[in-house]
């Protein structure tokens, strides 16, 4: 069959128009959004200054500046139609109203550390509400509180506390570039949880924009919604603007240590014993274990070359809220198997320990905590909870599996202490008493492309599957802030509740149903939704009608565009 030159030219023309169609849609949405923002904002706002269309020369740099996982910086990764970068709270309110009126979904990004990218990608037309400009922090040492906006980072929060006091801190994560908005709304796990619990256990007020664009505080939102946004994921219920947190006391001197053990150095017996004491030891002590397959060189005599050997290395990293003189008796009594000495201990103040946990060297200035950028690898994370000690035989089987897979590693995080005292229903985060430690599965890689992604994703999934007999079950629990779409996604259709329950039960256990009731009360039409959001209770077809209307408005842009093209061609 011959193809005429004119027909081939027509095909090429249509292909070119198809490539440009997404930009045309973006420009159409851009114009409508800018006009809407102008209508709902102060007269002094030049709306175009905070809205970026795909055709804007700064669009790509703004989009990529807070993508922490390069897996989602590819030509095939879905891109937002526009990015909105509000500079004050009223603009957030206006953006929500405009998103609802125009009918496109919103993705809310504070720090960009969402492991599976759900804060900045989607398979449906969407825009990003990027909160990085909203990062003010107001520390009040007199009442030991701080108001911190969602776009601030943990490093900035720690720095501002340190500016005001050397004996106050806040229990949150160890990565300084993590955004406050996502971290606190999902739980907030750090190295002081055995002493003070989670970040959410210290939230005393909050400000949120609801589906109507109204700014609410704790009093006006009510206790149910206030409960939900302290561990239930804020993006299911609205846009978190800021949290008011209660600071905690820290001693003038804290002690850290880092001790490595390989299998040849009795690591199996040491880890086995660690499981039996880590949730019961002094509440001032937290230990994190890095479990990694490595290759070592072994000497085979003075005249023989060194031989490579694969093994597993366990790194014990500790944080003690006190000096080493008080730490040593604790370790000698409850965990002598590690063999820690006073020479292994480093004494420092709390802000210096923040740098230690972030892997900065001793000479690094505390000002580095104000740096909002970070180097990133391609990565995937998963999580589990261990409630019964793993036997020595099973540990040895795990070592074989790690060596076989070669790349994935694991992180074991101590539980117990204050976590055992807070009821599972106190906040949406339910993983409290009964857990010995939490596992984070980790794999990083540098190779680009779909084949590399597939290879390393399969490796970590195989390790996760191998661990099934040794972790919690019915359901197998996961931590929301270690986002993992492998455990279920929501297509946000007629089966939204049933699909949401699959991952919701794993993240929230018995708290899922209460979260659903709150969602139904505050956002019954499911405006704030994404692939792992909290669904509302299923009811009449109103939600489907609303979504169909949104879909039709977007389809109209495309249909009108293609109608014009056809007229030109004909």
Description of the structure:
The two termini are 23 Å apart. 43% of the residues are buried. The model is unreliable at 17-21 and 547-570 (pLDDT under 50). This protein has helices at 5-40, 59-64, 89-102, 154-164, 180-185, 193-196, 218-221, 223-228, 267-277, 324-334, 350-357, 392-405, 450-466, 496-508, 512-522, 542-569; strands spanning 51-53, 82-84, 105-109, 126-130, 137-140, 145-149, 168-169, 203-209, 215-216, 239-246, 248-249, 254-262, 285-298, 307-320, 345-348, 378-386, 409-414, 437-445. Strand 5 and strand 6 (145-149) form a beta hairpin. The radius of gyration is 26 Å and the shape is globular. 35% of the residues lie in helices and 19% in strands. Helix 1 crosses helix 3 and helix 12 (392-405) runs antiparallel to helix 13 (450-466). The strands form 4 sheets. Strands 15-12-14-13-17-18-16 form a 7-stranded antiparallel beta sheet. A 5-stranded antiparallel beta sheet has the order 5-6-10-8-9. The protein has a 4-stranded mixed beta sheet with strand order 1-2-4-3. The chain is built from 16 helices and 18 strands. By secondary structure, it is an alpha+beta fold.
